Amino acid sequence: MYLAQQPGGEPVLIAEISQKQNIPLKFLENILLELKKQGILGSKKGKGGGYYLDKAPEKIFLAEVLRLIDGPIALLPCVSLHFYQRCAQCDEKSCGLHRVMCQVRDANLAILENKTVADIAYAPLPVAK
Asked: Tell me: the pLDDT tens digits for 67-92?
């Protein structure tokens, strides 16, 4: 979000992001490197360097980012689309939990696959009452 909010898509130093967003520097470095490796971010070295979005915020879907940072979107491995693992001693066809968790996964994906970084970076601020 922070990078999407920068005017002109200028590179931002990792230390600035860490400080302004209150994210531990080492943790942030790992995230930014992974996002860069996947082509979501770019970086520039030297004076005026830092990280920047390599894609338009409108083209970066939240599902893609969440999978890169957190792994599976599904709450159970037996319902994951990209990280599937069968549960030990479970018959998925008759498991009520499996059926419900598939619905939860699908509801989450219906939102996350259609929302982008732009949706969260440029969201209007709530009006104070």
From this structure: 999 888 999 889 998 889 888 888 88
